[in-house]
Structure formats: structure tokens, C-alpha cells
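Structure first, sequence second, as always.
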């Protein structure tokens, strides 16, 4: 996999300052699917070219099981285009290697960040669902001159016809940060198939990389749908945030799905799987009255509201904005009175006792505790397990050991910038067992997602049940 970026704006070697990569040095970086190499084939005053080459480790690609899972055709893991055609893997490598440049930072020469450079970008093999026209549809509105040529299956046997790949060349006057972000978002959109879990964090990544251009792009619906792997809940969230930028009606964007994408397969995201497992634990406990502590934008609340067995549902959060988004996400104004009567949204902080949150059969802390500073966890424990004291408490949190399986994460990084910690399986087990002992609960631990034999599942779940009720 290869991409070259050429600047012809003298002094062209300023490209090295912007990329934080010296033209005289070749550098290599580990990424989740292999190794990325950065080098400069040319570095002159009038012309400077940087190349990023991604060598994909085919064994690691098979271990990831994102392309061609266990139920797929047996040779699919070995006979595919993934190591060669530009896709989400190259986008991840771009972010890993050029993250500072993508963020628009250049401490050595800050004046360069705002300069529009004469840039040329070449990708010899791009996987494009929609062919050359899709490439032009995505890049041309951003000010690029697009030369998209379909690669023949075999230039020596023309009767075999064309392949599904594009030899792509872009020319334009662009800020380097903008150019990199265009590639980061649009390469996986063209390929229409990411090689890693598409979680709620992807919405934040899309908003950051698309800042300043996505909200006005004529193909933004297509971009949002494909970038978020056709996951309707994530698309709705992204659409709502785009609507806040330009004042559009979220519903009009959310419903503007192209016919070709309406039939696209939709794999279950980790967020959806997590909610499904939480709902299953609540059903198993026989709970009908549930409080979601730290409900955020209401993803779990919607699943609970759609299930008539949950007769009273309360979503509590410290963020008024999150509660407003939850209300919009639940479409309460469009639901019948019987459904609206089953749900309440309350502004409440987990570190303080709130009488309104007592007396429920079950409580949920889904992806909440890791957002709390460790010294304040004792206050949350007192609020939930000591004061509110539901019969059943369901807690989920990321498994830090699984982070090695996420290509976006460098060693030691958390899955979300607001996380205060992320626990290993042993750390979560120790915390859960200690809370259960102190509070008079019994606890059992369950995996959420594929339980990797080396690092465990991506999410860990604990079900607490009040001991005196169990007895």
C-alpha cells in the first residue's frame, strides 16, 4: 500500500517541518496490521515528495478476523486485496505517522500551518465502491483536480476488462492538514469496509477530521453512512452534530441514504453488542424498573424503551446537553403517551445521593466508571451500591488488555480522551469483588465481544445481585 504527497511550493522542503519527518531520514513505525515506512524519494527546493508505504502483516490481518471471518469462504483470509489496495488500513497508518500534521500543529514553523501549498497526491491502487465516479464525487467538491483511472485486470490481456481499483492522482492548493484529513476520512469511505470495530468513538474521529468541510460537502450523507459502517445509531449521532453546525434538520439528513447503501450489510458494532448484553442481563434478572446511571445520549434507554417488559425507565446524567440529545434520540415527541409515560430523564451527579434514584429493581453503569477520577470511585460506590441500592447492578467497562487489538491505539493510549483509567481483567475483577464484599452483593463477570484467548474480550461486564435477595 503506497501514497505519495508532493509539494511544489518553494521552499518545498518545508513539507518536512509540517510532517515532523526529516527528509534526510527514513523512519518506520509499528501499526496494528504491520509496519509503516516514511521516506522522501526527492527533496529539492522546488519539489519535495514524501512517501508512506504500509507493509501489511498477513498473519496479523487474519488474527483480526475483520475481513473474512470464521464463517466466510475458507480462502477469503488468504486470497484478498487487503495488503495492497488503499483502504482503512492506510488511513490508520496516516493517522499513526502524521497525527501532529493532521491536527494542524507545527511548533518549529507555526506560520506554515495556515499556508495553502501546491500539492500532488498519488495512490496507485485505491479500492473504490462506485468506481472512478465515486472518487470524483468525493474529492472534487473539496477543491481537488481529480485524475481517476480504472486499473485494468491485466494490461496485456485487454479483453479481461477492468478491475475494481483506481489509480488516483489529486492536484490542488490545500493546507497540508486538510489534505491529510481528506484522505483519512475518504479512503475508508471509498472502500466501504473498515478492518476494525466501528464504535461510538468513530463519531468523534469523523467530526474532528471533517471539521471545516464535512458539514458542507454535497455527499456528506454518503460519507457519514460509509465511514460509520452503516450503523444507524452512530449515523444518527453524527447527523445530529452536523445539523448543529449548519442548522439543517437532522431527520432530513438521516433519511437521505443512497439506494446503493440502503442494502449494504450492517455488522453489529461493539456498542450495539454491549447494549444487547446489558439488556440480556437485565431480562435474566427479571427487572422491569431500571435506572441508567450516566445515560449519556440515550443509546441504552432507546433499547429499553423499545422493550415493553421494562415498565419504568430513568436516565440520569450530569450533562444537560447529553440529556437533550437523549430526548431527541428517543423521539419522545413522536411516541404514544403510553411509551412516554415509561421514561424519565433526570439531571443528577453520580457522586451525590439522589432520592429520585432509589427503589429500582436494577441499575446500569455502562461505560461510566472509567470516566471518573479514581479517588471519586468510592463516592460512586456509595451512591449506587450503598444509597440507591437496586437489587441488580450491571457494570461494563473497557478491557485495557484488548487495546492492542485496536489499530488506532498506540501503546498506553486510552480508547477515549475523557477516560481516567482503563482496567485489565484482573483489576476489574478485584474492584468488582471488593465492591460486592463491602456492599453485600454477589457478583459474576461476563465477556462482551469476541473473547480473545490472549487478551480477553473488548468489554468486560459485571452483574451484581443483592445478597439478601439472592438468599
Amino acid at each position: 500500500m503506497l501514497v505519495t504527497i508532493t509539494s511544489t511550493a518553494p521552499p518545498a522542503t518545508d513539507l518536512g517541518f509540517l510532517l515532523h519527518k526529516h527528509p534526510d531520514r527514513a523512519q518506520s513505525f509499528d501499526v496494528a496490521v504491520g509496519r509503516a515506512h516514511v521516506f522522501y524519494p526527492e527533496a529539492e527546493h522546488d519539489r519535495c515528495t514524501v512517501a508512506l508505504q504500509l507493509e501489511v502483516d498477513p498473519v496479523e490481518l487474519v488474527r483480526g478476523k475483520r475481513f473474512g471471518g470464521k464463517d466466510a469462504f475458507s480462502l477469503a483470509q488468504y486470497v484478498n486485496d487487503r495488503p495492497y489496495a488503499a483502504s482503512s488500513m492506510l488511513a490508520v497508518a496516516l493517522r499513526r505517522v502524521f497525527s501532529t500534521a493532521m491536527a494542524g500543529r507545527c511548533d518549529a514553523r507555526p506560520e506554515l500551518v495556515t499556508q495553502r501549498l501546491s500539492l500532488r497526491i498519488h495512490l496507485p491502487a485505491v479500492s473504490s465502491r462506485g468506481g472512478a465516479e465515486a472518487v470524483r464525487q468525493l474529492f472534487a467538491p473539496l477543491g481537488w483536480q481529480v485524475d481517476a483511472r480504472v486499473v485494468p485486470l491485466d494490461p496485456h490481456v485487454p479483453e479481461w476488462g477492468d478491475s475494481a481499483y483506481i489509480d488516483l492522482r489529486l492536484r490542488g492548493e490545500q493546507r497540508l492538514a486538510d489534505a491529510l484529513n481528506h484522505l483519512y476520512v475518504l479512503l475508508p469511505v471509498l472502500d466501504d469496509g473498515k478492518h476494525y470495530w466501528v464504535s461510538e468513538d468513530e463519531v468523534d474521529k469523523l467530526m474532528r477530521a471533517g471539521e471545516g468541510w464535512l458539514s458542507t460537502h454535497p455527499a456528506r450523507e454518503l460519507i457519514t453512512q460509509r465511514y460509520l459502517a452503516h450503523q444507524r445509531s452512530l449515523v444518527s449521532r453524527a447527523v445530529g452534530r452536523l445539523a448543529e453546525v449548519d442548522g439543517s434538520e437532522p431527520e432530513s439528513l438521516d433519511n437521505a441514504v443512497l439506494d446503493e447503501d440502503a442494502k449494504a450489510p450492517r455488522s453489529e458494532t461493539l456498542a450495539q453488542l454491549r447494549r444487547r448484553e446489558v439488556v440480556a442481563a437485565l431480562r435474566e434478572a427479571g427487572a422491569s424498573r431500571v435506572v441508567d446511571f450516566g445515560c449519556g445520549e440515550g443509546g441504552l434507554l432507546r433499547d429499553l424503551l423499545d422493550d415493553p417488559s421494562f415498565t419504568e425507565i430513568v436516565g440520569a446524567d450530569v450533562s444537560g446537553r447529553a440529556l437533550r440529545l437523549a430526548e431527541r434520540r428517543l423521539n419522545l415527541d413522536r411516541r404514544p403517551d403510553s411509551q412516554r409515560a415509561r421514561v424519565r430523564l433526570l439531571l443528577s451527579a453520580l457522586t451525590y445521593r439522589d432520592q429520585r434514584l432509589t427503589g429500582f429493581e436494577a441499575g446500569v453503569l455502562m461505560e461510566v466508571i472509567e470516566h471518573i477520577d479514581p479517588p471519586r470511585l468510592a463516592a460512586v460506590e456509595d451512591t449506587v451500591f450503598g444509597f440507591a441500592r437496586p437489587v441488580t447492578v450491571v457494570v461494563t467497562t473497557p478491557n485495557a488488555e484488548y487495546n492492542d487489538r485496536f489499530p488506532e491505539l498506540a501503546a498506553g493510549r486510552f480508547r477515549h480522551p475523557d477516560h481516567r483509567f482503563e482496567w485489565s481483567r484482573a483489576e476489574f475483577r478485584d474492584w468488582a469483588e471488593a465492591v460486592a464484599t463491602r456492599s453485600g452483593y454477589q457478583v459474576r463477570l461476563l465477556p462482551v465481544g469476541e473473547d480473545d484467548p490472549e487478551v480477553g474480550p473488548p468489554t468486560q461486564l459485571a452483574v451484581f445481585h443483592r445478597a439478601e435477595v439472592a438468599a
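Margin note: The radius of gyration is 25 Å.
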